[in-house]
Amino acid sequence: xxxxxxxxxxxxxxxxxxxxxxxxxxxxxxxxxxxxxxxxxxxxxxxxxxxxxxxxxxxxxxxxxxxxxxxxxxxxxxxxxxxxxxxxxxxxxxxxxxxxxxxxxxxxxxxxxxxxxxxxxxxxxxxxxxxxxxxxxxxxxxxxxxxxxxxxxxxxxxxxxxxxxxxxxxxxxxxxxxxxxxxxxxxxxxxxxxxxxxxxxxxxxxxxxxxxxxxxxxxxxxxxxxxxxxxxxxxxxxxxxxxxxxxxxxxxxxxxxxxxxxxxxxxxxxxxxxxxxxxxxxxxxxxxxxxxxxxxxxxxxxxxxxxxxxxxxxxxxxxxxxxxxxxxxxxxxxxxxxxxxxxxxxxxxxxxxxxxxxxxxxxxxxxxxxxxxxxxxxxxxx
Length: 382
What we know:
Elements: E1 3-7, H1 11-22, E2 26-31, E3 45-48, H2 56-65, E4 70-73, H3 76-92, E5 96-97, H4 102-109, H5 111-120, E6 128-131, H6 136-143, E7 147-151, E8 161-163, H7 166-180, E9 183-187, E10 195-202, E11 212-220, E12 226-233, H8 236-249, E13 253-263, E14 266-273, H9 280-285, H10 290-299, E15 313-315, H11 317-326, E16 345-347, H12 355-369, H13 372-378
Parallel strand pairs: 1-2, 1-4, 2-3, 4-5, 15-16
Antiparallel strand pairs: 6-9, 7-8, 7-9, 10-11, 10-13, 11-12, 12-15, 13-14
Helix pairs in contact: 11-12
C-alpha cells in the first residue's frame, strides 16, 4: 500500500484513481479548483491548487502532512512543473516523482524535436519540417500537400490546421505562430478512419512491462483529435518502434504514444505524452493497471503478474457527443453511436461506479464546446 498523489486535474486522475484505490492505496489529488477529481469516490482527499503560483514549499508541506510516497502527474503543465522541480523535491523530502528528468521531457514535448530524434534513430515518422513566416515556400517544397501546420508544443489538437495548398499555408501559418509559437509543417497521412495509441512502461533495468494498444475509431476534432471511442488490441509490430524509441532515449517510466498508419502495417510515431493519458482506463479494464505498476516500481515492490485481455471498448461520452454533432458518419459508424451498454463497453469518465464525477465531466465538456475560443483552437481539424 502507498499514499499516492495525483498531480493535476482532468480525466487522467479518474483513470488512475480507480485502479490505485482498488489495490488498497490511499489516493490524493491536487489540481485546479474545478478538477473532476474532487467528486470522485476513489479519491480520498482533493486539495485545490493554482499551478501558476504554486511554491515548492506548499507542495512539500502537503506531502509531509499526508505522508505521500509517490507523485504522478496527470496533465501536461503539471508534468512539466514536476519534472523541472523533481530533483529539488526528491532531495529535500522522501518522495518519488513519476516523471522523467527535465532534459528528456523537453526533447519529447516539442513535437519537432521528437521527430528529429526519430529521424536520427531511423524510427518511422511523418515527414516534418520546421516552419517560420520566412521559410513557408521552402517548407512546402520539402513536405508537400496536403499537410498539417502543428505547434511544436500543444495538446488536444489545439492549433493544428490542415492545409491543401501554398495559398492556405501562407494564410494560416502567421496566425498559428503568433498564437502558439514555434511550429512545424508535417506530412498529412490520410487515414481518416483510425489511428493508434500505445502505452508502455520501461523499467530502470531496460526491460518492459506489459503494453496496451488501442485502435481509435472515433475522435474529435474529426480530422485527427483525441479519442472518443477506442478498442484495446494486440499488435506487437505496432509496439516495436515505440520500444525502440524509448531505448534510444534511455527512458525510464511510463510513456504514451500516438501512432498513425500510412499503409497497412506501416506505422509512424507522431507524439509521446510523458504522462498518463485519459484513456488509461482502457488499460485497466483490459487487465493492466499502470498506476500500480508505477507504484510497485518506485517503492521497490515485487512486480505483479498482469494478464492483458484485448477487445475492451472505451468511450469518452462527452467528446463522443461532439464527434456525433460534427461527423458525417454519425449514423454509419460501427459499433453504433447509439449503443450505450455492453459487457465490454466502458466509460472514460468513470461510469456508474463514479457517477458524480462522470456527470460533472460531461457538463465540463459541454461547457467547453460552447466556448467560442475553444472551438476556434480546434477549428483547423474539423
